[in-house]
Fold TetR/AcrR family transcriptional regulator.
Amino acid sequence: MTSTPEPPGSARPGGRTARNTAAVLRATLDELGEHGYAGLTVDRVAVRSGVHKATVYRRWGGVDGLLAAALEWSAREHDWAPTRTGTLEGDLLALAEDVRHGFTDAPEGAVSAASIAAALASPVAAEALRAFMADRHERSAAVVAEAVERGEVPEGTDAVEVVRCAVAPVYHRLLVGREPVSDVDLRRAARIAADAARAGAFVSRD
């Protein structure tokens, strides 16, 4: 993407509806980060965004609708792309660093953690989070596809699974063990995933 797309529900780019939509969805994420899913309310979002509560209810229906739309909007608004270093291991390390950053740096960390908690409490939020993560994984998979083109890993390598392998230990430490993630941890995860990919571990045997 080369420009910011129109947020969901916008009537026309740059119009008042688009501005109000962006304000509401941005306010939803801000409120989620500050108060968590349990403290996320339409009233708070309306006050923070400056959009009337009745309008928020009419367009998004409530907290779950707001959160689903906000996660979709966030994925579409931010033109994120993985860092290229020239090697698969380096690229996977950069991805792992991005995950750590996303959960430990303010204010992104609070929003990321609250989104996970919301997905555990709400099927609607869970579906929205799955879509958000699928988008990130597909974008990240580009670095594996480029490694295939360089001859660094074999043809038929499942790029998304390589990405999952590299970042899963980071998520486990952060969200399950609730422990710090060191640079050594990140390098180990990237190295293991890259070594396994080079050995053909992610090529389908069917």
